[in-house]
Amino acid sequence: MKVNKHAEVKHKSHKWKDAKGKRCRPPVSSSNVNSSPVVISMVKDHQESVRKKPSVKRLKNKVKSVSNHKNGSSESGIKKTHAQANGSSVFTIDNDSNDSQDWKEYSQSVHGNGMETSDNTEDVRRGRLEGEALHHCAQRDDRQNRTVLVMQKDQTLCFRGKCLLTCLYGRVEVMGFTIEEGQQSYSLFSPASHCPLSIRGLESIRALESRNEASHILQKYLPQASRKKLLKSITTNSSIILLEPIETPMTRFLSSFPDLSELFNLPMVRWQICSHLTEIMSAVLDTPLNGLGMIPLDSNIEGLKMSKSYRHALNTVVSVCKGDIDGCPVILVCGTKNVGKSTFIRVLINTLLNYTASVEYLEGDLGQTEFTPAGCLSLLTVREPLLGPPFTHQQTPDHMIYYGQSSCDSDLDRYMESLKSLWCRRSQTREAPIIINTMGWVKGFGFQLLVDMIRFFPVSHVVQLSHSGILQCPALTPDFLRTANGFQTHPPAQTALDEFTESHSPPRIYSHIGVQAEFQGVGSQGTAKHQRSNEQRDLSLLAYLSQLQSPDPGPVRPLHSLTPYQVPHTAVVLGVTHCDVVPSHTFHATTGSLVGLCCLAEKVSSKGGPVFLSQAPICPCVGFGVLRAIDMARGLYFLLTPIEPSVLRKVNCLLLGAISMPPCILTTQPGIDVEMPYITTKYSFDLTGAGKLRVFKGMTRPSFVYSSLC
What we know:
- The chain has 710 residues and is an alpha+beta fold.
- It has 19 helices and 26 strands.
- Helix content is 24%, strand content 20%.
- A hairpin with a 6-residue loop joins strand 1 (79-83) and strand 2.
């Protein structure tokens, strides 16, 4: 049987086709990238082509089922029992129901409409949901502003924006985490600063037994006319999800800054590079999803791309965690910068949460932290999936130490001692796997720190990511470690594991897993807006400060309008972690800055004035605050912080680090008629020493070279 192909869409007076004869978009010359009228015209033409519905001849006969050869379904009359992941209940399917058989034939025949032959059924179901397909498999309730989407196995929806996802029937997967019917709703964040998220349909645990069951599921969320249209897209193994708009204090606070107003949207005004233009042209701008704050992307834009070695590493580690008798494998993830370590860890944590209630996480990357503002080393337990970039899931760790810098090159010993201190605070029960994140510094001293970490901690697996088919540093195999020099350890491979383990048995032999990352732009820092590392550090800090906002909907309150805490000078000690500052200048350095709220073991003793630390301590940190002002006359610090008063009473130390406040906090202060505080224009970068000092890591200082020669 044959059907008519979609009507060809003309772009101006030309028919653009690719090498296979399929319709495609017109090529974009580099000269037009920065031309706004040309780009706007192209976007409008693309929108018109999306709106134009194809002319499809409906099939008269039913399409043959393809489930037998694809899924290997059992014969009629046999009951199947399936155990769902994430602790869901078990379902039993009775396949000999007449109603069920009629429903299967109906759903497969309807879903077959528009196909050339029954052999192509599975191919049509797979792939990206885009364009006209979204109008057939999604229906929106305009009154409640929500959309119900039907997905088949292996169909994907790649999008920008944010939404609240609820699985009404079946199963879908996002970033390795399986979301099933009966579970809670999950927030999905896909901002322009990171790789777009994808929702992938999975095979349902049980099949829909009748058309009435499918209609009953939709009845609560769609009016009758929309239900009738959507039922035509539902098969016995479809997954049905509910998508709703979401707004949180974090998103409201970030959107209040002009430079971040387009963070969860496509950059429709600024086309600075070709990648932004490509994403704009790939946006499907007329679908039932757009009104929710979601912008679907077509197949020209890739979501998360996993190489073969990437998948192998995930499967290996997950299999070990599922079958480990102790239940506590220790996985250290390392690799150079911009190779995808953080994304790999998020997918690994999400996948593990399908089988275990929690995963422990030790943060060793000061510059790109996952759950806290930059400059922190932390240990925490993850119980919820990570369905967005780091700034969307900021949380308070179980244990945290404020190092105060985005790199540890100025004090390597304090970095290692801080990690050891966190490890000692870990629960001795060790019922959950633990993942150790590391820095992207894999040269010189940075590589030596990796060697030390493998020796100090009882690592069971080392996952080493690289790119371009080569290793950016030596492979950290057990054989290599026997002769490698660390910063604090040296061969023979005598380790410090006895310090952390109950028994004095020799260290376990760990497994080394190599991963070759193959995504676009691997090995290089993103150049688009919000993709640079310093911008992402600002986003994490802004997300943390958004906790100062009210959880109730309403206008965003700027920080200068909030009431601060009053802290006496004699109640806390003030210290600087990253440089030497004379006491008379310390107040000038800390005013209007971010400070870590720490707890020293020693009691603060004062003779009536402020107390200053002579060196940076290694002590617990409970959170952060903004030292808004200092009243010298009354001896008070004015502190803004989201920390609860009961926890704040334990704080006796304020640590100033090199993590600065985001510029938008200071430059955007609405409601101030006078000169903005903390900002000056009387500064010249032409003066000698006025610019930032550049530090070259991994290079031996001249004094060490001289001493070694002597």
